[in-house]
Amino acid sequence: MNVAEAMLINVKDAVLMGTLYKPANLTTYPVTVILHAANLGERKSKFYVHLREMLTSSGMGVFIYDRRGSGESTGTFKTCSFYDLADDALAAIAMLKKKEEIKAIGLYGISQGGWIASLVASRGKDVTFLIMVSTPAVSPAKQMIYAAACSLTEAGFSEKVIQEATSLREMVDRYFRGHLEKEDVQAALKKRLAEDWYAHAYLPLNATLPAKVTESKWYYELDFQPLDCFNTITVPSLFIFGEKDIYVPVQVSIKLFKETTKGKEATFLSYLDVDHFMNEDLNGISRMYQSDLIAWLSPLTI
């Protein structure tokens, strides 16, 4: 059981609509702020349901908001950076801090949301714990090359095709960095548009690039370096991965995050038959993941 309270957050160029789910019958409680996966910007997205139900049942409040430009929130998502999204989360935390019943605030970021969460934790002194789920330790550019290779492999294409497709992705990235001319890259894309592998490689739709790189969200994201945030993060951190994740280089990410958090309070969990969104084959969201998450959080609810 939980009690829901609507909240409005004013940020510099947007108004964010959120909901605070409170554990029933508690006068004080900690809160976990949920930060969004790239394609799950609305608080009503199905994935978030298990968090608000599971966490509030365990004595933890949950706050989730519609990301800027999504759901009931205003503002522009298309050209904002991870730093802009972190500013939004910091504004949400500042709003939650005003509520006397909230005794601590932590973050849960899923996929891209883990990058945002780590940015917030590195900048926000009020964050008491950090949870990163299915979050790559490599840059978005490297992550998407990995995802494209996985997609092509699953579709049955040869290693030669995979190399050609990922080289094409690298050309697109070089255009966004200002290293190649639009006409040259677009010509290379159009030359391969009719190939049956094109749709599996996460390449620009219809082989079309924006006239200006700043008109695309990719320009603001591709070279973000996730590990840099951990120079200043000291709070307890939990990293969770599913080994059937086709979007994240799991073993590389675990290795890099472990090296970066060495000497800090960091816990790593991975699940053999679990995918990017913690689904376990046909059984829905993994029960072991949920159980382990609650166990890790339980000292924080006391």
How many individual helices?
Answer: 8
Low-confidence stretches: none
The end-to-end distance, rounded to whole angstroms, is 18 Å
| Shape field | globular
Please estimate the helix content: 25-40%
CATH topology of the largest domain: Rossmann fold
Q: What Rg is obtained from the alpha carbons, in whole angstroms? A: 20 Å
SSE pattern? EEEHEHEHEHHHEHEH
Strand order of the largest sheet: 1-2-4-3-5-6-7-8
Number of domains: 2
CATH-wise, what's the superfamily of the largest domain?
Answer: Alpha/Beta hydrolase fold, catalytic domain
Task: Give the oligomeric state of the chains in this entry, treating copies of one chain as homo and distinct chains as hetero.
Answer: single chain
Protein name: Serine aminopeptidase S33 domain-containing protein
Pfam families: Hydrolase_4 (PF12146)
Domain Serine aminopeptidase S33: 44-264
GO molecular function: carboxylic ester hydrolase activity
What do you see in this structure?
This protein has 302 residues and is an alpha/beta fold. It folds into two domains: 2-139 and 225-301, Rossmann fold, CATH 3.40.50; 140-220, no CATH class. It has eight helices and eight strands, in the order E-E-E-H-E-H-E-H-E-H-H-H-E-H-E-H. Helix 2 packs across helix 3 (112-123), helix 4 packs antiparallel against helix 5 (159-176) and helix 5 packs antiparallel against helix 6 (182-192).
